[in-house]
Design brief:
Largest sheet: 2 strands, antiparallel
Radius of gyration: 16 Å
Helix content: 25-40%
Shape: globular
Number of strands: 4
Number of helices: 3
Strand order of the largest sheet: 1-2
Structural class: alpha+beta
Order of helices and strands: HEEEHHE
Length: 107
């Protein structure tokens, strides 16, 4: 209960601040059940990142939606299928020119 309350306050505060400063946040839990919050500046849609680091239980569709890149493009660039399980910490390349070698993003 306390965790949810703190998380709710954090999200409310971040939303208030992020509207002004354009921040993004990601909430995750470690194996020891600690809350891990990552805060970063919001990415400008005109300056697409070169890659994405896979988070826990994230799908290719979610990554495609986040960066507004067609799933088919991500499949082709990374030589994977949307049906593959992605490995946390793996890299998904978002632009074709950055792709080198075989992918080790599958479980």
């Amino acid at each position: 209960m306390k965790k949810k309350y703190i998380l709710g306050l954090f999200i409310l505060f971040t939303n208030l601040v992020s509207a002004k400063n354009k921040l993004e946040y990601n909430v995750d839990y470690s194996q020891d059940n600690f809350m891990v919050v990552t805060i970063s500046k919001a990415s400008d849609s005109s300056s697409l990142k070169d890659y994405h680091i896979i988070q826990r239980e994230e799908s290719l569709e979610e990554i495609a939606e986040k960066y507004k890149v067609p799933v088919e493009d991500l499949e082709k660039i990374n030589k994977i299928s949307r049906f593959d399980n992605l490995k946390k910490g793996g890299i998904i390349y978002l632009k074709p020119k950055q792709r080198r070698g075989n992918s080790e993003n599958k479980k």
